[in-house]
Amino acid sequence: LSLKGKVALITGASSGIGAATSILFAKLGARLALNGRNMDNLTKIAHQCEEASKEKPLLVPGDLTEEGVVKKTIADTIAHYSQLDILVNNAGILETGSIENTTMEQYDKVMNINMRSVYELTTLAVPHLIKTKGNVINVSSICGPRSFSGLLAYCVSKSALDQFTRCVALVELASKQVRVNAVCPGVIITEIHKRAGLNEGQYAEFLEHSKETHALGRPGKADEVAQGIAFLAAETASFITGVTLPIDGGRHAMCPRIFFFFLLSLKGKVALVNGASSGIGAATSILSAKLRARLALNGWNMDNLTKIAHQC
Ligand SMILES: NC(=O)c1ccc[n+]([C@@H]2O[C@H](COP(=O)([O-])OP(=O)(O)OC[C@H]3O[C@@H](n4cnc5c(N)ncnc54)[C@H](OP(=O)(O)O)[C@@H]3O)[C@@H](O)[C@H]2O)c1
């Protein structure tokens, strides 16, 4: 796997998946243009890239939802390197909320970075990518192909990004030998969930729950996504375009689960569960206990009922 000599523009390089991708790309020999908002973090990641490749990355900082920043990002990259081989559209945010309580401000905020900025950046990058027969990797999510409650605007934005990936890849750029792919990560340990409002305790609970929602029994690491991005960006994927590659510990193949399950609460409720000593009744009792209900448990077999009561 090599990216030697390739010029790559990576958005959201200052944290999480974007940071891991930048460092891996540097190790693989790419020349980098790195975008992010937090200048301190971006500079730290740039130093790590420089240590890995002995090449100083170009910094193209800025909020991609602000007027003119996308144009400047591409213009500065081309002015510096005179070419572009790889665009990694990674910058993104997560907002919680359902159809009943997501505000239009939240919707616009999510769509503006997760989709609109990607559309604009890709549009401006395409003339340069056609010249180099380069490629685009969009960082989507398992929330693109699958549906989760409590994350409506985010799911919509990632689903749009998946369709954008396929349309641009197959209908528009394949004939010009520009490949366009996406990765769809499951839960990856980064800052995104805490930034969306989870406190430390909720985040710990969420990661614990991820052991059940991912077939491989754990959340993923940013570098595991970076490896997939690098594979798609390199010649290793020369015959791959239009794919939305799950990097999710098998989660896409599982039944949909409630994503922010702890937003569900039975706190303060009193629940009477019949048949609580076995099977569905036992599972319902244990889940209700986790959701903080106060329980009255019914069942015939006193030994089993006592065991379930202990678990509750
Ligand atoms: N972590 C997961 O579980 C997970 C799962 C599936 C998909 N993803 C996707 O992976 C991508 C990266 O997320 P992450 O998990 O690495 O989160 P993260 O640690 O919060 O990093 C997000 C990055 O996006 C940047 N960013 C956000 N809004 C921006 C804006 N308006 N303009 C420019 N940069 C902006 C941030 O910049 P600053 O820090 O400098 O502000 C940061 O570098 C996102 O698209 C996310 O949807 C993540």
UniProtKB/TrEMBL annotation:
SUPFAM superfamilies: NAD(P)-binding Rossmann-fold domains (SSF51735)
Signal peptide (UniProt feature, chain positions): none
Zinc is among the record's keywords: no
Oxidoreductase in keyword set: yes
Organism encoding this protein: Latimeria chalumnae
Phylogenetic lineage: Eukaryota, Metazoa, Chordata, Craniata, Vertebrata
UniProt keyword annotations, A-Z: Oxidoreductase
Stored InterPro entries: NAD(P)-bd_dom_sf (IPR036291), Sc_DH/Rdtase_CS (IPR020904), SDR_fam (IPR002347)
Protein name stated in the entry: Zgc:101858
Single Gene Ontology MF annotation: oxidoreductase activity
UniProt cross-references to PANTHER family, sorted A to Z: EG:BACR7A4.14 PROTEIN-RELATED, ZGC:101858
Pfam families from the UniProt entry: adh_short_C2
